[in-house]
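User: Predict Transcriptional regulator's structure from this.
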Amino acid sequence: MLDVIGVIGSNLFIDAISEFYDLFPDVEFINYTYDSPWEIDHLIEKAGIETDILLLSGVIAYYYGQEKINESRILATYSTFNEFMVSLSLFSVYLHEKISLEKISIDLPKKDFLDNVLKEIKISNGPLYVKDYPWIYQLEKEKSAFDISQFVRFHKDLYFAKKTQFALTSIHAVYKELQNFGVPTINMVQPKQALKESLEKAITLTKLKKTKDSQIAVISLKVNQPDPQDDQVFRLQMLQYLNEMARQLNAKVSLDHYQPFLIYTNRGSLEEVQKEHLQKVFELEEKIKSSMQIGIGYGYTMKDAENHAKGALYFTEKHSTEKTTIFLLDEDKKLIGPLFENEKQYILKNEDHDIQLLADELKMTSKNLLRFFDFIRLNQFRSFSAQELADYLAVSRRSAERFIKRFLDHDFIHITGEEQPYDQGRPRALYNISEKLKNYFILNQ
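Assistant:
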């Protein structure tokens, strides 16, 4: 079955990135074009139904779409802004327009991008007129209006005051408005390699999510009422109720477990209907006239999922036995709960002595080591590149390469070959874990 990626952006972005769709014959791309990035909720809602992941044109679109993305539980990423875009754009203006930096007005997400470029090429007299919007990266904060007119006025006033001769903008809507006013301008140049890497990142995230969705999920349920007078009747009655709920979760109720009862499904099926159908547990309260404790566990193996469900159930009992309480413990030992209340997240301490010793040897935290183990499992023990690891850990490629070097230095990873990028760039090394490290996967089962 083809992976389906929804690409959301302006006409300019869609035209540029669609040039590379043919490089990925196993993926279907669906384009969703907007006029302004702060009016895209309807596109996100539509694309969320039709696709596996959304690739947004940039951080502005992601900023304004994040609330709808979170609300609809949609997997999404965006094409990132970087120093290469700045340097390429400045070079383009200089080459084609013959205009000095002092005569260019620039807007971009963070002034740091420009400062880093100028510092790298040892230019002290850079552009005099720069306007940025760094708050756009504060994704967790309340959304504020993005006043396009401020940026249009910034460039236009400078140009007509003859302080500048050209405008370089990172905002497509500003580019269009400046054209209407007759201000010489270009939109920031998006490197072809960056566009291809955006598509590669979206594809990698889709495959990782599908692998994650196939994780085993176990629901452990314990009724709080005192032992019933007719234990057998109560057990059969509970199995009947739980089987009704399991059918909606594409799940199976274990006949071998009692207090707690166990329900087996997969993570994807559970997350798809979690909020809608797990709340039916509260309807079950009315039927059995008792509150319950429910622990949900995710894992790569049946044993892991069962242990995590058992751990989550333990925390429900610590939290409250007076009312129905649900906690979830995932494959990273991240505890979430109580669900449907004031949910909080906790990272449980790793008690695996061997993992702690290995983390100390590599001079990293147990948490980061376990995240790397999860990446290896999700990647199904195939060879991987530094960029793939960087995408999973949500760090820069350079950080991922430093991470990999620690393993290389201890012979836990070896180079298996290289892959040639789609363009004429340098080949990328491919890595895989050594037999020495595989022993830790066995210990960690």
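The two ends are 31 Å apart (CA to CA).
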